[in-house]
Structure prediction request, 1092 residues.
Amino acid sequence: MSFDIDKIRADFPILQQTVYGKPLVYLDNGATTQKPNIVIDRISDFYRTTNANVHRGVHFLSDKSTQEYESSRDFVAQFLNASSSKEIIFTKGATDSINLIADAFTQSILKKGDQIIVSALEHHANLVPWQIACQKTGAELKIIPINEKGELIQSEFENLLSDKVKIFSIAHVSNSLGTINPVKEMIAKAHQFNIPVLLDASQSVQHIEVDVQDLDCEFLAFSGHKIYAPTGIGALYGKTEWLEKLPPYQSGGDMIDQVSYISSTYAEIPLKFEAGTNNYVGAIALAEALKYVQNIGLKNIANYESELLNYATQKLNEIEALKIIGTADKKASALSFIIDKIHNYDLGMILDKMGIAVRTGHHCTQPLMNKLGINGTVRASFAIYNTKEEVDKLTNALLKAQQMFS
Amino acid sequence: MSFDIDKIRADFPILQQTVYGKPLVYLDNGATTQKPNIVIDRISDFYRTTNANVHRGVHFLSDKSTQEYESSRDFVAQFLNASSSKEIIFTKGATDSINLIADAFTQSILKKGDQIIVSALEHHANLVPWQIACQKTGAELKIIPINEKGELIQSEFENLLSDKVKIFSIAHVSNSLGTINPVKEMIAKAHQFNIPVLLDASQSVQHIEVDVQDLDCEFLAFSGHKIYAPTGIGALYGKTEWLEKLPPYQSGGDMIDQVSYISSTYAEIPLKFEAGTNNYVGAIALAEALKYVQNIGLKNIANYESELLNYATQKLNEIEALKIIGTADKKASALSFIIDKIHNYDLGMILDKMGIAVRTGHHCTQPLMNKLGINGTVRASFAIYNTKEEVDKLTNALLKAQQMFS
Amino acid sequence: MTINEIQDQIVEDFSVFDEWLDKYQYLIDLATDTPQIDNQFKTNQYLINGCQSRVWLHAELKEGLIYFTGDSDAIITNGIISLLIKVLNKRTPKEIIEINLYFIDKIGLSQNLSPTRANGLAAMLKQMKLYAVAFDAKSK
Amino acid sequence: MTINEIQDQIVEDFSVFDEWLDKYQYLIDLATDTPQIDNQFKTNQYLINGCQSRVWLHAELKEGLIYFTGDSDAIITNGIISLLIKVLNKRTPKEIIEINLYFIDKIGLSQNLSPTRANGLAAMLKQMKLYAVAFDAKSK
Ligand SMILES: Cc1ncc(COP(=O)(O)O)c(C=O)c1O
Ligand SMILES: Cc1ncc(COP(=O)(O)O)c(C=O)c1O
Prediction:
């Protein structure tokens, strides 16, 4: 399929919205994406025709719901190129997925003296759970530093590798700087020390091709709402042998095999990690969103968005006193910047009044902002439905704002 | 508002569905309820007009989303009569809510020699997390036994009370037998020993009035999907002083105040317990569902459903060889039964073929079934849209099934 | 009779019913035909996972042919076991491994084949094939 | 001028703008009017939570009247502080406690009053009232 931007925009009803009388220019896709009609309708149709609780029923609707839920799992597996559907666990989102793994490692692997590696670019969701794991177990957190372009310093990463490291958890794409980390190479290096790797793909699955077998990561986490799916659903991929050996996270219905008042035995994976009534409608809508993305094609998406990002970078660089934060050679989606003497928050407020939605502040990467010596940035983050005209609007709005504050 | 059953049925589009060419008779409400148009439309409309990530944005849509999310919290607080909105935490569902509390008690309160009380009626979701808490801390699980009607034996409960008990967690209404437990009195008794109480209201909020201040429970958990709201959302109520002193559960964005690479400080309640992007659309739809319920009125609902349950009980009792399991004086929604010499699963299959959706098996209460010496039951569970005609269909179908197996 | 002759026969038997309930009545009636498993095999080892009812299945190889017996505490499940055994009994491992089982679809029970289905038809079938594979391996 | 006279004046000042951007331009221009907080008070203790920009607010009681000073690292926030101080400065604690603040609504900034709003207008207002309550209690 070729990339037909008009058709794509027509798929997203919210883009027809106006804000303060101005057409909405939605550039806050790093925070959450908008939903195409096909996903919204999937949810409504499901509730209108099929809904019943999964896995437990002998009746027609329950069976149909279960089939749709499980084939959604199959689709997620296919989308990530997992080797089996049982390697896919449906979670609440990336934060839930990462917490699940951090908890399992806390319970069963980490000990005093062990180490955990993360990077200086991490979102709080991939930092705080590991800090807590360290507090609970006495393990130590090691941070891969960045260079002035916002790229991880590979030699420093290599220095951190050792047999002491029990897990390495890293963002595929940085949410605040847009840096695409060379994770395939980094995973291979970690494997030389038998270190399992958790990939935080929250900012990558929607922008570039992700193949878990090619990358060879042990775990991968992402959120549905950032890839055109509803809120409240996400996925965790894990290699079978790892999921089988890790202890369960939450407990309750569906995740157990036998229960007595005294004790319980657990179900097989993936159900072992899915306690209670899962968000099966969310899972079904997630699969629908992934199908939508797959139909457009991730190669096409990556090309289109990268062209957009380059165009925006060039345009913004023409603005005097504007400084782009994060100038890695390989970037996706996010464009962070500051303007001399104007607070990012002031800029955000003025852009908002011109109908342009951007994010301001630390983007849940406070330590990174401290490291960079800034209090935050304005971040424009692009998705498949954004256009060069929107980039022009952003540029003009920034020029206008500059005037207002001068 | 008076109870207009035709109008109510018209609100639920799935009830117009046929199954194997027969009109759907949906009596599996204990597993999950169907959704009224107003809730389904709320989700679609939100995605079409308003969606943006909450709490973090300076822009118009983000602000609007946040306001709708927070006013949904206000509504849940009002629905439960909580004294403040910050006592409401949005979770994935009842299982998530109970796991949160069990984890917090495991982390910060339970020690070897302590005790936890649950009842013989509990759903696995309110049993297994406490078993695991016991395994992790060395605390001991005490079970309140039931009498032959399926009621908790109060004198035995009183015998279990002591200073050793650190938490008492109990279902308001039993999902498999329908028993309404006298929780207000039991909570008062527990308080004499300063024991905090978690109420599993998964099977009560949708059927009878629940007022947390009147009941005086410390915590309360329920799932949205069982009260006409979507999957993937639920709530946890907790008294302010308790939520303030318990440690956080998951960690990530939004739940922290300050983060450095070394450590982090936590946000105020309720955000302390809401890590990552929460299911804000689910929360908004949950509030819509609760409004729908409140408009009909829980008194009216309780009256109507209780009449239905009585009618069904009387009708089913007329069937020879049928035995109702659970004959408590006070019951809500669930009607469990077995028929001599016919496996519950066989019955369920035949009812299904007549368009009647019931649940069969242990209903996630395996220990209770073992205790009762049965391998499961057929459970019909009623909601606001069920009718006496549907009860008649169930009765006739059971008679027909009896013939088939004789 | 060949495997396919038996399958065709079953399809014909079911073709007279156009009501679901009649099909199930027939399954119920078939239940009594199931070659009864010896009581000594009614143990956890022979229990099949994934069914709401309990299902035991036993197989043995005699003179190159597999003999299946089974039982369930639910009658309809027993009827289904009975059908499966009718088709698969006294066949060589190789025949079972290579079987093209079309009758389930034709009699309208294929919805029951979903692995998520509580009756475990899929699980039973899988177990029968596993027996065949095991016997086949042994005889090599 | 009375509190309401000042409020009415602000409403009038804003009434000439029908474009959002002009209102914000006016807020930006107002920012320089903010009675500057003494540097010694620009500490965490005087920092207001709940704003994306940093906001410091200080109050002192002199001869029964409250004197507010403030600052923010964001200009628009400073403009808002300036408006609030215009209205609330040099009033008695009682006046501030009992105030009916209608100008925010009338100039179209009431959306900014939501407690979830990142600019923290609600948080600032709350802090100012807290000062008033504290001074009021002390003087009793
Ligand atoms: C009494 C009771 N508690 C807890 C649960 C668990 O709810 P969920 O599966 O929505 O987390 C259920 C649902 O079946 C229930 O009936
Ligand atoms: C890189 C990264 N990791 C994790 C998360 C957390 O995702 P969620 O809030 O959906 O759980 C985000 C979202 O902002 C992110 O950008």
About this structure: The helical segments of chain D are 3-15, 20-30, 75-88, 93-97, 103-106, 121-138. The pocket of pyridoxal-5'-phosphate (ligand 2) is lined by residues A 93-95, 123, 125-126, 171, 175, 200, 202-203, 223, 225, 364; B 252-253, 276-277 (CB under 6 Å). The radius of gyration of chain D is 14 Å.
